[in-house]
Design a protein that fits this description.
two-stranded antiparallel ribbon; globular; 30% helix; seven-stranded mixed beta sheet; Spore Coat Polysaccharide Biosynthesis Protein SpsA, Chain A
Length: 253
């Protein structure tokens, strides 16, 4: 496989977030949230284009002012993946990177590392990332998606439940047992088309995790281990934590 496969980054950003409507334009350290994500994505050296897929013209305008292309999409998509698939449809690209629109501190180096893996290792249909969780207590959080993977880094399962289950209370290990799934996805275009053509499977409906649909239809998903732990903005209360995280990064605010 040739080393340079055309790659586009797509940031899904809808207005009607259930817990925080209009959060894409919420100010974080004086800038709209979507601007932070775009600026990080533009710093990634492996992305040939950066698009914002949105259903709202206010978000589209902010995206263009921040240096990204804006693509208007339908308002009735069930997931961010469906939205990015519409935005990427017809774009000349072999790899699509789904960059979460509520991750203002996303690391451009993480994006580049994942893209490089997809360009070099043709066996993967998708790629994503995970960071260590420090304790079983931390893994108990239902808002945190956990992932388990094999010795090759291939995802075996994702869950909001703390996985793996520790049966024996005397069990101990000096290795990381619990891994937090980081919400960035890379797709080969052919697989992305296959993915969005499939209806949600039973496991996806039960866990409310769309990546389980990918596993259900046989996807080989690579999980990159990283120290980057993300920091999504899901509610207005998350803004303070996001601002604190940004101030700790190597990027000025």
């Amino acid at each position: 496989m040739k080393n340079h496969l055309k790659t586009i980054g797509v940031i899904p950003a809808r207005w009607g977030s259930t817990r925080f409507p209009g959060k894409s334009l919420a100010l974080i350290c004086g800038k709209p949230l979507i601007q932070w994500v775009i600026e990080r994505a533009l710093q990634a050296k492996t992305l040939d284009r950066v698009l914002v897929a949105t259903d709202d013209r206010r978000i589209a305008e902010a995206a263009r002012k921040s240096g990204a292309e804006a693509v208007m999409t339908r308002s009735d998509h069930q997931s961010g993946t469906d939205r990015i698939a519409e935005a990427a449809n017809g774009c000349p690209a072999e790899i699509v990177v789904n960059i979460q629109g509520d991750e203002p501190a996303i690391d451009p180096l993480l994006i580049d590392e994942l893209v490089t893996i997809m360009r070099v290792e043709e066996k993967w249909d998708m790629a994503t990332a995970a960071s260590p969780l420090n304790s079983a207590a931390e893994a108990e959080g239902k808002s945190i998606c956990k992932v388990v993977f094999n010795s090759e880094g291939q995802a075996l399962y994702f869950s909001r439940f703390p996985i793996p289950f520790v049966r024996d209370r005397t069990f101990s290990t000096n290795k990381t047992l619990f891994w937090r799934h980081i919400g960035i996805y890379l797709y080969r275009v052919d697989f992305l088309k296959k993915f969005v053509a499939q209806p949600p499977c039973l496991l996806e409906k039960a866990e409310a995790l769309e990546q389980l649909r990918a596993l259900h239809i046989g996807a080989r998903i690579y999980v990159l281990k990283t120290k980057h732990c993300g920091g999504g903005v899901d509610t207005p209360e998350d803004i303070a934590a996001a601002e604190a995280a940004l101030k700790k990064t190597a990027f000025s605010v």
